[in-house]
């Protein structure tokens, strides 16, 4: 009973104490007028160092007399050579509207705007993407044979300007000899021997039978001489074919093998950019000889070793291995002693490769394979077919793959363009609307899906025609690998000479992001 009285007593005391406290809270709320920032696009493109960013925004506030402070900043990495380097904001302007040069190298940047109400302190942050380019970093590069049988290059930029005979313009003279290849290396690192430090740049590399020159797409100066690609003596130019990128390397493909340099700038892996001696010249204690063409995909390159009559894969670490053919039901019998005519890949969900061989008697056959080597080294030969000698395809003089949205090939026969379906072995003449008359000197497909809209998202059949010493290059939109019926070319380029190769340059292509565009040589 005493315990119960004690509890009641303490309860009454607690009520008394609680009732003595005063409510000291401040419930005098002040309304802060809101504001909105509009007018900022999702993305802007600007030419680095020379072109102003002209960006205007609108700030609408409920307080018509409100005054604001503005702070524009660019997000940068503390160490741009390292992928995971911390970022910081570099303030570039305190004006409401921007009209200043973008003084950073080509690439994609985040631009932020912080707007603060001076009286209330309320701040809001908005951002956009800046695609910084150089005058040379975005457009089509056309390798061509000149009227005197030498090599030059025309450039058609996205801003509707051009550089005609660009090799002669920027180097001082065209390359001697007929054109051989045009290579594009996006975002690679190398040692600049003039300044004694490593740089990261985009390179375009035209090659003739006798000369190779490396241009920087920053300013079209010669980034390095051919000899500077090598630690030792430079490899014979006559035997060099072209440069290309792989998963974590870039390489020089030659008659004797592949020179490779291990790097992937987008993943923080950089190097001096020089090639050691041919280290990828043998596999399984057997020296190999590459027969061209080589089939390049996102990660692996499929090669034919004509010396040993076998297929080889160059993987994303620049290592050579023999592909797994265990699912091919013994359709392939090694050694293959016939001449490689064509090898090309199409990306239609999975990867499909057609490989054409020719025997000594002139008869041809092909393998049609599901090449799932984007994630493994397996190649499933689904068909091995003889080519009916009555078909035009049996004497095709130029063959090109449909690299996207179509499991068939384009080929030339008697100056006409046909398609060949390796699934059922049928062919048909291709109707190419508005194609001018002349000799077809280049034919390929090119696609890009790096942007959802705009000139960097396309899927084109590209045909170059030469007539009386002048070329016309037509770009056709396609549906399922076929030019849209009755539709004129979406782009037409014209000039002097004979076009033999085309590359598209864009800063959206990087060494670590090669899945959104076609690799073609």
First-residue to last-residue Cα separation: 100 Å
Describe the main β-sheet briefly.
5 strands, mixed
- The whole-angstrom Rg is 31 Å
Percent helix, as a range, is under 10%
- What's the average pLDDT? 87
Q: Care to count the β-strands?
A: 39
Strand content: over 45%
By secondary-structure content and strand pairing, the structural class works out as mainly beta
Count of runs of 4 or more consecutive helical residues: 2
- Low-confidence segments: 1-21
Word description of this protein:
This protein has two helices and 39 strands. It is globular, with a radius of gyration of 31 Å. 36% of the residues are buried.
Topology:
Blueprint: H1 2-20, E1 35-38, E2 43-47, E3 52-55, E4 58-61, E5 68-77, E6 87-93, E7 98-101, E8 107-117, E9 123-133, E10 139-145, E11 151-157, E12 162-163, H2 166-171, E13 179-192, E14 197-208, E15 214-216, E16 222-224, E17 240-245, E18 249-254, E19 257-262, E20 282-283, E21 286-287, E22 290-296, E23 301-305, E24 310-314, E25 320-321, E26 339-348, E27 350-358, E28 364-371, E29 379-386, E30 398-401, E31 409-413, E32 416-421, E33 426-429, E34 439-449, E35 457-467, E36 470-479, E37 482-483, E38 491-496, E39 498-505
Parallel strand pairs: 2-9
Antiparallel strand pairs: 1-4, 3-7, 5-6, 5-8, 8-9, 10-11, 10-39, 11-12, 13-14, 14-15, 15-16, 17-18, 18-19, 20-21, 22-23, 23-24, 24-25, 26-27, 27-28, 28-29, 30-31, 31-32, 32-33, 34-35, 35-36, 36-37, 36-38
